[in-house]
Fold these 4 entries.
Entry 1:
Amino acid sequence: MAQMCGLHIVVHADELEELINFYQSRGHFQELIQMLEAALGLERAHMGMFTELAILYSKYNPDKMREHLELFWSRVNIPKVLRAAEQAHLWPELVFLYDKYEEYDNAIQTMMTHPTQCWKEALFKDIITKVANIELYYKALTFYLEFKPLLLNDLLLVLTPRLDHTKAVTFFQKAGELALVLPYVKSVQSHNNKVINEALNNIYIDHEDYDSLRESIDNYNNFDNIALAIRLEKHELIEFRRIAAYLFKMNNRWEQAVKLCKKDLLFKDAMEYAADSRNSKISEELMAWFLENKNYECFAAGTFVMYDMLRPDVILELAWKHNIMDFAMPYLIQSLKEYTQKVDKLEVSDETRTKEAETNNQQPLVLGEQLMITAGPGMMAPGPMPGMYGMQQVNPMYNGGGAGYMGAM
């Protein structure tokens, strides 16, 4: 009977608060909840009824609050229900309301503060991309490092377009957990960032992964080449010392590169770097070093690898001194052939120029005809002036004795 009367009162928003206080003061909480549940289906149901029912659920029946919010979240006064959920420590419901009310920063902070009750991986990754405060990204990384380290790379995959990669890598370096996020660091190396490149190179050195280090060096050049080369030249593994020589070569430090290769007996690399240096002195010193160590096969190979940088007289002298003419003979034959071909070409060129000079000398110089042609048609060359060469000057207008003027004829 009381419920039927109450249904006629709750539809009036001004009377609702007094009615609720009347029931609560007498301890009839369940009856009040049942009455409001029944009133939700009325045609005149208003926001206050949905809001007050949600608040009552938070106080007296929290198990039903989540279902109520999922059905009617758009019809409740969210700020008012938020305060009630926070006072009741209903953290999952609080996160739900923050999400619907677009207060994403508060939702993330609530999940990180109460992870055992309201953290959900999919929901967290969905909301973290919507936050306004960028610092929450790095707080989230700290949270995952502490509570969910194995899921850290999944979170980084979502945050990659929004993170400052230099700051993120520095953060993990300080935390000493850079190796844990290796997939993330690899995925952002395409930016060719110095901090990222050096961090990744350090990981490869620590893991003794020289193949990956060489690939990183070849593809991404934004790092301190010389510092890395100096660090690697004393590494205990020969492959890393080989990379050090390669770095010296990339920075045109040819003598250091060849010296390091000779120290580790990397003959092929030494010959290639000497050839790339385009320096005859470095190449010839390497050939002399081969002979000092009785590496005659390397001496023979060097004559072909460093062919353009070697002088035949030096190779001939070295071979003669060490009595290994057979090892130098292929090089000497090739050199002699090239010099012979050059001399033959010079002879042919000289003969051609001589013939052209003779042909030009045999052609007569016709100065008069050239001058007539140059003068053009209708223009005659001027004759000798009167009085020159003993010629008598004659008046053109007088024709002998008493003949009269020519103009009268």
Note: The chain has 25 helices and no strands.
Entry 2:
Amino acid sequence: MVSRELSDGKCLLGDCDFLWKSSSKPSDTILPHLLSEHKIVIASLETVYDIVRYFGYWRNKVFSHNLPAHLHGINVHKNDTEKPELFYMLNDNSEEDKTIRFKIYQETLDQVLLQQQKERECCDMSIGCLFCPEVLKGDRFSVSEHLYNEHSFTLGHPDNLVYTSEFIEKLRSKMARSECLYCDKTFKNYKTLREHMRKKLHKKLNPSNTEFDKYYIINYREFGKTWKTLNNEKDDNDVSNPQSGAPVEEEWSDWEESAPEMKCLVCSVVYTRFSTMKHHMKSQHRIDLDAMCADLSYYKQVKLINYIRYLVAESRCPFCEEKCTTDISEHLLTHPLMTSLSHEQYNDERYLFPALDDDFMLCCLKDVEGEEVTVIPEDIT
């Protein structure tokens, strides 16, 4: 959990002038500093709901390097020849540390619930859209509805959100730095970022990105546990559907995403891994997609995939273009292993448009760095 305070955080040792942004990831800033400069390790930092306050408490305890009195010392042997190095650990098993963590959690939870209640009652939000010039007004539901209906972007269920305006501004800042909201990759400019998000279907949030955890009420549900921890636990009180035996959908399911599936170019088989799908098509349909796409730009690969899907849908062989009166899978077996296709066959702009809605296979194609891109007008929002 990350502190809501956006000021500079100070080092755990009071006489150290190292500063870090409390809005940044501790694993990228303060934790490496403590380990390398002071040989201090903090256990289970994910159970700390306000890192700045937590450090403030312990800073008074270990001021001027008074470490042995409050931190557990551990001798670490790097190898058999060198002398052991002494490291210090803030152990969340100690009663004092556990007490301060839980106190911070309770106070944070009170603040979060109060903020969520304010947002539930607020009907006059005014915030700029992430993807278009429109200023969004109304309540959280109105804002979420616009993002989803107009831009196919979801923050999750509005009732699961907290500090919504701050959340949206954080996402806006990432995009202003040309950072992808899903994979965190940084691009040379905003236009390239938008094109990347469109091609890779990254116009969404990554559930594994913990920097967004503070904006979801589910992460405050139980002390020291995020939605992912709760989801992985085996709860004896889980209720299953008496008819199907399937577990009832969990309340945090609007945030968790299952692995997307892709459909075979020829048959109805679906897989979640592209490598498995390519093996299937090569062994069952004589289509060597790796070889066919080896020297193609991203957009030529898109055209190729859509071309094959369009012709298969018309019961026509994508290689000889013959109309198949029998199952097309059987017809493809009459061909040798297909490693190439004439560019003239699929060199048509209409094949830039997906033949299959939400075709995840298009997101798995190789992205050619430095490739000139042509933005399709209807995809710009």
Note: The beta strands are 8-10, 19-21, 40-42, 72-76, 85-90, 125-128, 135-138, 262-263, 270-271.
Entry 3:
Amino acid sequence: KATVSVLNWPSRTSTMASPYITEDQFEVKKVDHELHFDRVSRVEAVSRTFNLKVVFDANTDIYPIEVGDKLTMALARTLELDGALQHDSYDPTVLTRNTLAERYEYVAHGVVYKVQAGEKNNIVTFYISFGGLLLKISGDIQKLTGIELNQKLYLLIRRQ
């Protein structure tokens, strides 16, 4: 297997002015409420547009998710609407300003910690940790462009 170090995830065109890496619609196929952690469920979903497969942990105590739910999920490099990158330290004004988070119901901040080429041609998987809650996404490498190993980003989710 080859290791891929730089990837991109499409759907929405990435520009320097856009905070988005991607945004797509997903249908929830499986929810495992029996994980070893209270209030956390493992969710499996498939995107409608690019057939991306995602498995992620979510705090379903505060944001319930069930099989059949249709979710809009986005990855963004910043919460700033103008695409300006944020500083490494926490900014408490993010809760009182108009940001990308206002458009979604569930927001998590994490880092890409692993990228892996699949055994099938053009399939790639990358892994993101959101403070211990994990996300794994797999799909065609041409549909996954713009994400870098060790990159900090945001997962944003809302119901359709």
Note: The mean pLDDT is 85.
Entry 4:
Amino acid sequence: MEREKQFIQSQGGKAPLLADALDGTSMKRMILQFEKKAYRNQEMRIKFPDIPEKFMESEVELNDMIQEMHVMATMPELYNILVELNAVQSLMQLLSHDNTDISIGVVDLLQELTNVDVLNETEEGAEGADALIDALVDAQVVAQLVQNVERLDETVKEEADGVHNTLEIVENLTEFRPELCPEAAQQGLMAWLLKRLKTKMPFDANKLYSSEILAILLQNHDENRTLLGELDGTDVLLQQLAAYKRHDPVTGEEVEMMENLFNCLCSALMLAANRERFLKGEGLQLMNLMLREKRLSRNSAVKVLDHAMTGTEGTDNCQKFVDILGLRSIFPLFMKTPKKNKKGPNSGDLEEHILSIIASMLKNCTGTQHQRLLNKFTENDHEKVDRLMELHFKYLERVRDCDHKIEKERNDLKFFGGEIDDDMEDQFYLRRLDAGLFSLQLIDYIMLDVCSSGVQTIKQRVMQILNMRGGSVKAIRNIMREYAGNIGDAKDDESKEAEQNRILQLVDKF
């Protein structure tokens, strides 16, 4: 086997590409030549299975032919011919060829054929691109690629490149057709990615790429989040991230991988079942440690906690977070927002996540845990209330600036006879959220909740600061009524209505 590989590599790797331009006829001729060489090699291997000298020449010819076929990647409009002549099936069969040099050659070719820039290059090429992707999907390309990649030895450079190109094919396919993500994950890809992330090897480009592909698979697909949980993927992510609780990643690429893993965890936590796994896997304890250690992982740990504790599904995590003394870690960050790292959430997003965590705990905690949370707002002469009011005025000003700009645009539109439709209203609301409206809603929610359920001195301090700075109770009520009217992330109408009633009751009490 080793001699066959050395012989193929000694023949110079890639053959020169065809100089003359490719057209339909020359493409057909090339495919027929390829089929002949593949058949000849198969025949020689069956005849002389134990005498490499006999089939080696046909193998080199087949390898050269595969290299020549790279020229096809410049002509996506001719991909239909590849499909019509069943060349895709033949390439798929070669992915399981005994000589991994041949299977790596096929992977290399597929990576170029599926390059998204090539697929989207021209309108004529779009039809050919669709035909090729359909044929690859029908042939269960991902399952075949995973089978091939499982036998590659990444300590050999060519085989490590083969793994990288395999991941690139997956990225190409899912970018060109995002709805393929669940199917790809089910065909063994997710299990392989988790195994690759767990492998005890020095950090390298393939580990980074594996984390990227996993993040893509989880981004918008609940089926994949479910599969991740079933494969104990939340535990794998927590184990990999545990390395960064006391040590920072060494290179920029490793920082990127760490952020990908955090993003995977946030996506996974969108699913209620994974929140339970996160709780059992001591994810809260790990994130709490990261908050205290002040390493590069801290800011993203805040983001993960927000995802774990939000909504009614976050109740158990909220209660447990108070039990493990999480209040001691989160409130110093509330008092002074950490600076942004090279990667991870920026200061504005961080502030939003921290506020969201506190709001989630106020909604979800009960009994002694709820009381311990309220006590935080009275300690050190109500310093948390002072900070809350400081944030209220900061965000109120930002939102008002945005509102003035929008109002001017509305007036200009009316003046020139334009109409403001629902789409435009939605755009205006999104702009206000970007300007800080969501953070302001969270701040005012916290303010109303602690004034209602905390001791009298909290409300007295809030009113004192409002009067001192010329703030108004009416403005706060309006913000909260708008918040209640726009709650959209509740899973069902019943919980949405309950949350709206809760907010409006707080408004009335205020």
Note: Residues 10-19 have pLDDT under 50 and may be disordered.
